[in-house]
Write a structure and sequence with these properties.
By secondary structure, the protein is mainly beta. The chain starts with 10 loop residues before the first strand and ends in a 28-residue tail after the last helix. The longest helix has 6 residues.
């Protein structure tokens, strides 16, 4: 089976909204995009935010992005003293089915982009528009009826570690990453509780109130009736 290429497009900035930790922008086609202001766990402005601040409403530029329908494309940062991203868009070839289901979250460092292919249980390393390595998470990642037990979703980098949110499993996956490879390192790097989790579905066992032992009947403070103390 031949690999499929997916089209991509530049976006034209229509509006920009400061959301605190992020900037929310909309393009002229009504799509929303979220840009983090700082690099992960630092106070340093992210490359994407720095680039964005050099654009104005009506400017056209590109982004590396994924679509849950199955698209992934990449653009380069400009290297001609002009802030922004430069074309042309480079479609990224995804693996053959069933390993191409739902490219989703991503994080980048330099020329390396780490992208989840969520419903295929894969973390992929993209370099220069090509997937050069993948790592599978916990298996099995589906139950007997096809429901998801595990799926890497959103990514974050910290040193040589990459963390990905396993939304169905209510935990973080941890990967070891380099310029050339990505390895699944650990499940359960952190655990979460929330709607649908086992902690919220399982009621606490009912307990019966403890039975009190019968206490001796107190005497009248003046002694038995008819008798002077």
């Amino acid at each position: 089976m031949s690999k499929k290429q997916y089209p991509s497009t530049n976006i034209t900035l229509a509006s920009l909204e400061d959301k605190g930790l992020t900037m929310k922008l909309k393009d002229t086609e009504g799509r929303s995009w979220v840009i983090w202001k700082n690099e992960y766990q630092t106070n340093q402005p992210s490359e994407a935010f720095t680039s964005l601040m050099n654009h104005k409403i009506g400017d056209t530029f590109g982004v590396i992005y994924s679509e849950k329908s199955g698209s992934l494309a990449e653009l380069s940062l400009s290297a001609n003293s002009i802030a922004g991203l430069s074309g042309p868009n480079r479609p990224v070839l995804l693996p053959n089915a069933p390993n191409n289901d739902t490219p989703f979250g991503m994080i980048a460092r330099g020329a390396n982009a780490y992208v989840t292919i969520a419903h295929s249980n894969l973390e992929a390393l993209v370099v220069n528009g090509q997937i050069v390595a993948t790592a599978a998470g916990l298996t099995p990642f589906k139950d007997a009826s096809g429901g998801f037990l595990h799926a890497p979703c959103w990514n974050a980098l910290s040193g040589q570690f990459l963390y990905s949110a396993d939304s169905p499993g209510k935990q973080l996956f941890r990967y070891l990453v380099s310029d050339t490879n990505v390895f699944f390192d650990k499940a359960g790097a952190a655990k979460f509780a929330g709607p649908g989790s086992s902690s919220s579905r399982t009621p606490a066992p009912a307990t019966k109130p403890a039975r009190r032992a019968p206490s001796a009947r107190r005497r009248d403070s003046h002694g038995p009736r008819g008798t002077r103390a």
